[in-house]
Amino acid sequence: MQMISFVLIGFVILNFCLLCTCKKLIKDTEKNIAVSNWILLIASYVFVIYADYRFAVVLGLITISSWFFAKYKKYSYLGVIIALVSLGYYKYTNFFMDSFAHILGLEYQRLSIMLPLGISFYSFSAISYVVDVKRSKIDSRDLKSVALYLSFFPKITSGPIQKSKDFFEQMDADRTVDWNTFLTGIQIFMFGLGKKIVLADRLAVFADQVLTNPLSFGSMTVFLAGLAYFFQIYFDFSGYSDMAVGVAKILGFDLPKNFNLPYLAHNITEFWKRWHMSLSTWLQEYVYIFFGGNRKGEVRTYINLFLTMLFGGLWHGAAWNYIFWGVLNGIGLSVHKLWMKYTKSNEKEQNWFISIISILFSNLFFFFTLMVFRADSLSQAWIILTRMVSFEAGLEHEYLWLTVTVVLFGIACVAAYMKSKDNVIAGKFKNVSKVEGFYPVMDLRKFPCLVAFLVFCSLVLCMAYTGGSPFIYGKY
Q1: Which of 19, 147, 302, 375 could bridge across to 380 with cysteines, CB 3.0–4.6 Å?
Q2: Which among 266, 276, 316, 336 is annotated as catalytic?
Q3: 316 belongs to the catalytic site
């Protein structure tokens, strides 16, 4: 069941109607919550089984092990190990066996191993649940609660990775599921859908054509294709995250926002606080702190940063370019930390010119590391990067949608700045130096707002790229 399909829309509407009916018929709050959670749990497993019943078996086994070993804290480490081993087997077996076979000069026939839907995301959620119980941040829960937390279908495919405490608190609450939540959720969903099918999928046409065969194109075209991918991955993944947030809102849940205008970050550290925020938070709490964080001296702090980003790179995919991408970002975070220590600069006091330079440098660093992320191999990444700066002649190609994307992105940044400025005036923010993103949600009960939304929906459908590609993070 694809996130972009009429089947998914019908599935969400069906569950919305069931939850609303449950709310109307069952007046007892506790019973209503219990029945609503059962509806969502069944729906989530139907969603997984629709893809492949074997995926549901793997999800079920990891759920049972996480629930069982969290309940018996003495053996909680086994719950973490089982989640990691499951992820490692399904995602990395062929990669490591291929690598060892290549080093030893042996022949290796790849195994036919399926990649269960969403295993990268619900494995991390399972680990966070077990560890949070071990750390006494939350109490162990019954099997049904753990099962719903890990399988909740709006987030299972590509996140966001929600904290167990936050999810359980909402699961136990008397959630609002009505026409108002539907109107809010559908706007957020359409906002994300527009990012994906209008911007990301159209940029993918240009980026894929050029970056797959970089030697055929001139340096400027390769650079523009890299810029297209730079925006494509943002609109693709943030678009999915928005759609997941929208669907969850329709069903009465609030998922964490996963992106907060990362391309306005002043440095690589701030960037990772704005990009894929649920993963960044997870890596900080369950990897960086596990390694010791900054509690074991300065040298260990840099080593821990490096190892955390190396782990994050490996999580993204079973290939050396992902690992090297993680290494580069680990180095970037360490260098920035050293820079802040020895220069004693205060980024909050930067003037507008220095701020712009900082933002440009941060984006330039991520742009070049992203080419390593995008390439099929390290050798291809080297070809792409050297082609960009070699001023070589070749096929030249200009792509209108890249210009359209840059313009729309600029307008969105200005709107976010003005909104943040209004929040400062209203006393919600202390200063506007850190621009915050927001969902442009309107009151659709007002006729002008309803017309504007319908016009927006029409434009999204009219300008959609019908030969769209799968979500980039769907394969991770």
Answers
A1: 375
A2: 316
A3: yes
